[in-house]
Write a structure and sequence with these properties.
Bound molecules: iron/sulfur cluster
Catalytic activity: (2E)-4-hydroxy-3-methylbut-2-enyl diphosphate + oxidized [flavodoxin] + H2O + 2 H(+) = 2-C-methyl-D-erythritol 2,4-cyclic diphosphate + reduced [flavodoxin]
CATH architecture of the largest domain: Alpha-Beta Barrel
EC number: 1.17.7.3
Shape: elongated
Number of domains: 2
Protein name: 4-hydroxy-3-methylbut-2-en-1-yl diphosphate synthase (flavodoxin)
Helix content: 40-55%
Keywords: 4Fe-4S, Iron, Iron-sulfur, Isoprene biosynthesis, Metal-binding, Oxidoreductase
Strand content: 15-25%
Family: Belongs to the IspG family.
Order of helices and strands: EEEHEHEHHEHEHHEHEHEHEHEHEEEH
Number of strands: 15
Structural class: alpha/beta
CATH topology of the largest domain: TIM Barrel
Length: 405
Amino acid sequence: MTIIARKQTVAVKIGNVAMGGGAPIVVQSMTNTDTADVGQTVAQVEALARAGSELVRITVDREEAAAAVPLIRAQLDKRGVDVPLIGDFHYNGHTLLASYPECAESLAKYRINPGNVGFKDKRDKQFSQIIEIALKHDKPVRIGVNWGSLDQDLLTQLMNENAESATPKDAREVMHEAMVQSALLSAARAQELGMGADKIVLSAKVSAVQDLIAVYRMLAERSDLALHLGLTEAGMGSKGIVASSAAMSVLMQEGIGDTIRISLTPEPGGDRSLEVKVAQELLQSMGFRAFVPLVAACPGCGRTTSTTFQELARDIQDFIRDQMPVWKRQYPGVENLNVAVMGCIVNGPGESKHADIGISLPGTGETPAAPVFVEGKKVTTLRGPGAADEFKQMVLDYIEQRYGS
Ligand code: SF4
């Protein structure tokens, strides 16, 4: 698919999912349910997994949540949902993992935040405890630095050094350095404690696009550990989608990143799976992976005679997404299919010819006829109110003929 050379990182196995070392970029997401509520968490993990999330992270913040983790795992297994679960720990991860060994065993990876486990005083001990538990259960960890909870001692130390330097840097650059050092020092400490590089994933999340790009470039230059990309606190709706896509696409274009999470603040009552859909679409539009057939549709303009073409484009897209769980098994390779639905003669026939199958609906003043192209050749012209349904059937027949066994 892609012609971008990916940076070679150390491969890590998270449950049954391969990450880094040239494996395809992994899509992951995180629940927003109370983990202690087993029913709701199972339902959301299942929805995220069915939407295509290959790893799902859950908060483990207190005893009730830790006790719930093995029950969540068992229920998911019973439902045939084998997505690996990652435990997100802050402050008390060492205690929870030590007190709830079944939780430690059920999770496929532990996320540690060096900013609130840390190095100073008790923090080093607590960090070491988590690493030792991970070693005992043979689990990988993500050392996940976050701008909002950055190790303040380390930051202060670097700020002081910078103030005394003959060539002081900009405060933002010092912050970047602190993020990177926090991740790298923690990784080195984990390795000192006996953890292999094949058990460590790094992340250093910030909320501004340019900062994220700068920090990850530094991380990629100074380490070959697998990298988890994510813009933290990306925001709601289109703002979150655009900011995350902008930051991650620049990095992935440079070969940086082994897994991505698009963190979106859901609209009230909104669909949590949207972040999975956006991550998949980002990877697919950049040519890194294919998840569902792509439907190219023109934006429509004053030449579009009716809403038929928008409806058809939406219809085909929704239909394809709904069918994918079945089609993936029935029609191997169907995710690479390209369909075009175009609104008039200006770009319609040209774009349709470039797709595997495409239709050019008639625009204003055009003869009411819709030529259909298959693999670059015009195969028929559809007319009348049944044209949309006929085209849908043609797409199905094409899939059957090309990808059916
Ligand atoms: Fe408008 Fe035609 Fe272009 Fe679609 S293909 S945007 S209808 S000019």
